[in-house]
Design a protein that fits this description.
The chain is an all-beta fold. It has one domain. The chain contains no helices and eight strands. The strands form two sheets. A four-stranded antiparallel beta sheet has the order 2-1-5-6, with no helix packed on it. Strands 3-8-7-4 form a four-stranded antiparallel beta sheet, with no helix packed on it. A hairpin with a 2-residue loop joins β1 and β2. The chain is elongated and about 65 Å long. This protein binds to 23S rRNA in the presence of protein L20. InterPro entries: bL21-like, bL21-like_sf, Ribosomal_bL21, Ribosomal_bL21_CS. One of its GO terms (cellular component) is cytoplasm. Keywords: Ribonucleoprotein, Ribosomal protein, RNA-binding, rRNA-binding. Pfam families: Ribosomal_L21p.
Length: about 100
């Protein structure tokens, strides 16, 4: 059984027991969270989509803050002495899918 769920504007294919890195959620370690925006559910080879889906995905927050890889944006204009360097690390939350109900 799997489901496609929308979390923070992104779609994820999940099964029970999966661990995911999702965009940062406002939850603490050990909190239980529920995702109501389930787009598709497949159980026993039957697909349910759209308005037919009546499922909720339940998950537990394993780690509230995980930083992604550093991304550097560098700009330069030749012969002008213009250099600009910016970098950032995206924040993620690690969750474990407990149930698709």
């Amino acid at each position: 059984m799997f489901a496609v769920v929308k979390i923070a504007g992104q779609q994820f294919r999940v099964q029970e027991g999966d661990t995911l890195y999702v965009p940062r959620l406002a939850a603490n370690n050990g909190d239980k969270v529920e995702f109501n925006e389930v787009l598709l559910v497949s159980s026993d080879g039957k697909l349910s989509l759209g308005a037919d889906v009546k499922s909720i995905v339940k998950a537990e927050v394993l780690s509230n803050l995980i930083q992604g890889d550093k991304v550097i944006a560098y700009k330069q204009k030749r012969r002008k002495g213009f250099r600009k360097k910016h970098g950032h690390r995206t924040h993620y939350t690690k969750i474990k899918i407990d149930a698709i109900a």
